[in-house]
Write a structure and sequence with these properties.
The complex is a heterodimer of chains A (791) and B (63).
Chain A: E1 18-20, E2 23-25, H1 28-39, H2 44-48, H3 69-75, E3 76-79, E4 83-89, H4 96-103, E5 112-118, E6 123-129, H5 135-144, H6 153-159, H7 166-189, H8 195-219, H9 221-232, H10 239-258, H11 266-283, H12 296-299, E7 303-308, E8 311-316, E9 325-328, E10 338-343, E11 345-348, E12 359-361, E13 366-367, E14 372-373, E15 378-382, H13 390-393, H14 411-437, H15 440-452, H16 456-475, E16 478-480, H17 483-491, E17 494-498, H18 499-503, E18 510-515, H19 520-531, H20 536-544, E19 556-560, E20 564-569, E21 572-577, H21 579-582, E22 593-598, E23 601-609, H22 616-624, E24 628-632, H23 640-646, E25 652-654, H24 659-671, E26 676-680, H25 686-691, E27 694-699, E28 711-714, H26 721-754, H27 760-789
Helix pairs in contact in A: 7-8, 7-11, 8-10, 8-11, 9-10, 10-11, 10-15, 11-16, 11-27, 14-15, 15-26, 16-26, 16-27, 17-26, 19-20, 26-27
Chain B: H1 3-27, H2 36-40, H3 50-62
Classes of the chains: A alpha+beta (791), B mainly alpha (63).
């Protein structure tokens, strides 16, 4: 029987769809959104895109902290007493219908004046009247139609500094000057011996001079500053020959027009600066909807419910004091260390320590910060404030406060050292030669050498190659933080994987039943018993069993926390639980399992297996050919035998690793001179990700939290990982190839310079030509190699 | 050919004028988002749906 698709979100409506207005919906949430849109005549939403919605989540009580004026003040962008402006980051914006509905919010709430979406950044800016609307109301409204905002104070603080537009201004000035100077220099190029040219050439020359001044002193100032910095640290980075070339160009051209020797090289100067800045601009690819800098502060909620004298109050997380009583609801995070007072606690620490199965805690047990409560409401008493919690201690590690290292890191910088020395020697030797041979040419030749040898081609290869590759990667959902990451990836020799969440997927847990066969009736009885339990393992097993539960009710039911369940149904006694609870002896002690006894006879056990990502074995197989592979896990070693059997022999395993231990392991490898890449997903990997040379964070949903890293990889593309790594290596090879081409240009140019034939025309042709050919060559080649790899 | 002073002078003034306008627009933040306006432009304004028309007809007939 085919099931229809939900009219709102497109998912399968299942066997019992909810019907409304002759349309099928998969759940009450989608039906509610449709009702809201229908009532306000916004059904155009569905015309724009087929099934554009996402399933809305529960919102009761979720935004209570927005009633707190302190928090509201921090979140509002603007507030003049009557009107306020707020910007929400909404990760679920994904199509044109989203834009349409969010910009039509005025129809859903009278207090909203305007709402504007910024699609690339996935933000929504709402202007509203203070007396008609409130921030909490707005958040609840957009959540109810399926667009839940991700509110984090930490992200807010960082967003406040404005986008840096200096580079845009510099490029535009250089472009303006380049075009105009080029035109103004044509008259003298076409050396027409007309009288009027002799009279007016000074006009053209001085105009060119005037236009070059902002180019040299504003647009190119970055290069001078960087070159001076490099020289101070005794390093010859790529900006040194660039700055040298620009200054010599300007100096010689100015001398020429003052002394009326010639027309100067202003057009080459402007062209050079323009192309270099264009390269810089192209290399900057920022993903505004992602954040590569998130730490634990963005992971924690903004506020938590505190119980004071029996009354529930919302307080900001940073105001939590020792001794406070907190109320933690289902699916909420525990923000501080504390002791469990009451409630059924099943805490999921997979993000923090890497344990895959939630742990049950009893009253009086210590609860650590960072875990997610998964079994209802609990009350706890605070032991440590947020800055003293165990989790935040991890961030006091030195690795997070590393000062910026000022050494040669990139390929271009390492070549520039030899380049600079080479051209200085050549210039010196040439100057000496011509001084004795024909002194009048000496100045001409020395400056010509320094001008033409300017490494514009050298400096353009890397930005365009890497910039293009960054874009290709981003298009394929592998987002890199900056250009340097590609070069670092190409140098990596060892790859370290985290287990839980990285090579396993949390979407489905696989269950394996071992034991004597159970009849359908017996499965149904077990499922009926499980229905009454809230334990996460019970719920997983409940979903796993296909058969329908019995309609009869249980005559007896007893759940022992952390151990198991005893129940009677239809006069049959069913016992479900851990091995120790049922008195079963085990060979392998570390598997998580639910054993079944029916009428006191042991039938077998359901063993919980991690479900591994698609293509895991192929990925490891492919990678083990060129890299050393290690798996560091915070979980127990229950999966060790299985992993050893399916993965290549050379893979190393370490289990029960605490976050600091992972960090130290990497440090040790690095001290041996190895370049290490870490692939992880949770807060427990944060230290390791920062310590490694390249840290990649795997994310099931790139919009939610991922720890600070150098690259974010969408989990669905895990099996393409070897291809991405190979491509990074090939990009470096492309850059090296283009260095050869630029060397060729330099040799040709050097010929002209050394023989004193470097006229402005030759320079004006040679320099843009070399830049353009390098750019085209590099872009075509990177596109070609990525097509060949067929990512 | 003295007119060349005027022609070049005027063209430079015009060019600088456009350049200043460009700087101003970049500063105003127009170009921060170049994708959303392209989508926004395709939306229809106030849609008069069938039910609206029906409501109008009903209210008129009951008067």
């Amino acid at each position: 029987m085919s099931s229809k698709n939900c009219f709102h979100c497109g998912a399968e409506s299942g066997k019992k769809p909810i019907v409304f207005n002759e349309k099928d919906f998969c759940c009450n949430g989608c039906k509610t959104v449709y009702e809201i849109l229908n009532a306000n005549e916004l059904t155009c939403y569905y015309d724009l895109q087929n099934a554009p919605g996402t399933i809305p989540k529960e919102i009761k009580g979720k935004f209570n902290y927005l009633e707190n004026t302190e928090i509201v003040e921090k979140l509002l962008e603007f507030n003049d007493g009557s009107t306020s402006v707020v910007e929400f980051y909404i990760p679920s914006i994904h199509c044109s219908s989203c834009i349409w509905v969010l910009e039509n919010l005025t129809k859903l709430n009278k207090g909203i004046i305007t709402s504007m979406v910024n699609f690339p950044n996935k933000t929504l800016r709402i202007t509203f009247k203070n007396d008609l609307s409130h921030l909490k109301e707005l958040a609840e409204l957009i959540t109810s139609i399926g667009y839940e905002p991700y509110i984090s104070l930490e992200d807010n603080d960082k967003k406040l500094h404005k986008v840096d537009k200096t580079l845009i201004y510099q490029v535009s000035i250089a472009a303006f000057a380049f075009g105009n100077i080029m035109l103004l220099s044509f008259p003298e190029y076409f050396q027409v011996d007309e009288f009027w040219l002799e009279k007016y050439k000074y006009l053209f020359r001085w105009l060119m001079f005037a236009m070059s001044i902002p180019v040299v002193f504003y647009s190119a100032k970055g290069y001078f500053i960087s070159a001076l910095k490099g020289l101070k640290h005794k390093i010859l980075n790529i900006d040194v020959p660039i700055a040298l070339g620009i200054s010599v160009l300007f100096f010689r051209s100015t001398v020429e027009i003052f002394l009326d020797i010639g027309t100067g090289f202003f057009d080459s100067l402007a062209g050079l600066v323009f192309f270099l800045l264009l390269g810089k601009f192209f290399q900057q690819k920022t993903y505004n909807f992602l954040s590569f800098e998130r730490d634990y502060k963005s992971y924690f909620p903004i506020a938590v419910t505190k119980i004071e004298n029996g009354i529930e109050k919302n307080i900001p997380v940073k105001n939590i004091q020792k001794g406070d009583r907190l109320l933690i609801r289902n699916e909420e995070l525990i923000p501080v260390d504390g002791i469990l007072i009451s409630g059924n606690a099943a805490i999921n620490y997979s993000f923090v320590t890497g344990e895959s199965i939630p742990t049950e805690k009893q009253s009086g047990d210590k609860l650590f910060a960072g875990g997610k409560q998964t079994a209802g409401v609990i009350e706890m008493e605070v032991i440590n404030t947020i800055s003293q919690s165990y989790l935040t201690q991890l961030w006091s590690n030195d690795i997070f406060n590393k000062p910026i290292d000022f050494t040669i890191k990139t390929l271009t910088d390492s070549i520039s050292k030899y380049f600079t020395i080479a051209i200085l020697c050549i210039a010196f030797v040439a100057g000496l030669f011509w001084y004795f041979y024909n002194p009048s040419m000496a100045f001409n030749v020395v400056t010509a050498v320094l001008i033409i040898a300017c490494p514009c081609a050298l400096a353009l290869s890397a930005p365009f190659a890497i910039g293009n590759m960054l874009r290709i990667f981003g298009y394929k959902k592998f987002y890199l933080k900056n250009a340097g990451t590609i070069e670092n990836i190409a140098k990596v020799e060892t790859i370290i994987f985290d287990k839980t969440g990285t090579i396993t997927t949390s979407n489905k847990t696989e269950l394996l039943y071992k034991g004597s066969e159970l009849s359908i009736d017996e499965f149904r009885m077990i499922k009926s018993v499980l229905r009454a339990s809230n334990h996460p393992l019970s719920r997983t097993l409940y979903n796993f069993i296909d058969e329908k539960p019995l309609s009869e009710s249980l005559t007896e039911f007893e759940e022992v926390i952390g151990k198991g369940i005893i129940a009677t149904i239809n006069k049959v006694t069913i016992q479900l639980g851990s091995a120790s609870f049922l008195g079963v002896s085990l060979n392998s002690t570390n598997e998580t399992a639910i054993y079944v006894k029916i009428n006191n006879k042991l039938k077998g056990g359901f063993i919980f297996k991690n479900s591994y990502r698609n293509g895991l074995m192929e990925v490891f197989e492919e990678l083990s050919k060129n890299y050393k592979l290690v798996i560091l896990s915070g979980d127990n070693d229950g999966e060790k035998k299985y992993l050893e059997s399916v993965l290549p022999k050379s893979v190393c395993f370490e289990f029960n690793q605490k976050p600091e231990e992972k960090l130290n392991y990497i440090k040790l490898l690095q001290q041996n001179g190895e370049k290490v890449m870490m692939i992880g997903d949770g807060l427990n990997d944060a230290g390791a990700l920062a310590q490694s040379d390249v840290g990649i964070s795997i994310s099931e949903d790139v919009n939610v939290f991922s720890p600070a890293c150098d690259a974010i990889l969408d989990a669905k593309l895990f099996n393409k990982l070897p291809k991405f790594l190979t491509l990074s290596k090939k990009t470096i090879q492309v850059i090296k190839a283009s260095f050869l081409i630029s060397l060729l240009y330099n040799i040709i140019g050097m010929y002209f310079a050394l023989t004193g034939q470097l006229t402005p025309v030759v320079a004006a042709i040679l320099m843009p030509l070399s830049s353009i050919t390098i750019v085209i060559f590099v872009t075509i080649l990177t596109n070609w190699i990525s097509k060949k790899q067929s990512i | 050919m003295e007119v060349i002073y005027i022609t070049i002078g005027v063209s430079i003034v015009v060019a600088i004028f456009f350049f200043i306008i460009f700087i101003k627009t970049v500063k105003s933040g127009q170009y921060e988002d170049t994708y959303t306006p392209s989508v926004r432009m395709l939306f229809d304004d106030e849609l008069v749906t069938e039910s609206d028309k029906d409501k109008q007809k009903n209210s008129q007939s009951t008067k």
